[in-house]
Task: inverse folding
């Protein structure tokens, strides 16, 4: 079977891609609005894209897309709007113990509601950026905006990591992350998730 992307509906492409590109790490992104209200939302189109300087990217969709005559009206989600306004955000990594709170924060709360309060997690002060981090998360990445790339109805937010908060139990003396402690959660297709400790195996990269 060959799928011609130009001739396939967005809905069908979405189902194929989220079922094929798995597991996807989850960026639990905290931002602060121009009104000072803290926002928190999860995104599974996310990854690290380099270390010199350290850079991450994630892709928040538009909240809605409508047409006014010949003009497309794209309304950004709160996270994207806040990053456009403030140029800062924090990526909080999701461990198994935080999955329920992460999932609850994906609901479409009104802009005047803070997901921190609704899902029961603690906003902790960041050191380099204004948005708070999730205190219960074992790894927090403070980020400043590099660029937002809009292509069609997609948004790719690229950020430089300017500071990392690590729970003392999740990192070893040699700066390795303990997978058994982190228990990072990944997104599968549909409503399914997995952890990085399920069926973990190791392969050493070959040398020639």
Result:
């Amino acid at each position: 079977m060959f799928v011609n992307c130009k001739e396939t509906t967005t809905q069908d492409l979405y189902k194929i891609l989220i079922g094929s590109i798995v597991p996807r790490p989850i960026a639990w992104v905290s931002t602060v609005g121009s009104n000072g209200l803290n926002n928190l939302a999860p995104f599974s189109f996310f990854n690290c894209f380099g270390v010199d300087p350290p850079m991450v990217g994630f892709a928040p969709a538009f909240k809605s897309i409508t047409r006014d005559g010949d003009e497309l009206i794209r309304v950004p989600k709160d996270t994207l709007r806040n990053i456009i306004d403030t140029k800062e955000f924090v990526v909080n990594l999701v461990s198994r113990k935080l999955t329920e709170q992460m999932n609850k924060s994906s609901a479409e709360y009104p802009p005047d509601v803070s997901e921190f309060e609704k899902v029961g997690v603690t906003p902790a002060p960041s050191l380099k950026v204004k948005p708070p981090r999730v205190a219960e998360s074992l790894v927090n990445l403070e980020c400043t905006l590099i660029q937002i790339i809009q292509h069609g109805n997609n948004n790719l937010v690229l950020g430089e990591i300017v500071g990392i908060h690590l729970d003392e139990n999740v990192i070893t003396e040699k700066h390795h992350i303990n997978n058994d402690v982190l228990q990072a959660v990944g997104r599968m297709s549909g409503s399914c998730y997995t952890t990085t400790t399920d069926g973990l195996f190791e392969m050493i990269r070959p040398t020639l």
User: Anything to note?
Assistant: The first strand starts at residue 24 and ends at 25. The chain has one domain: 22-195. The two ends are 36 Å apart (CA to CA). The domain at 22-195 is CATH 2.30.110.10 (Pnp Oxidase; Chain A).
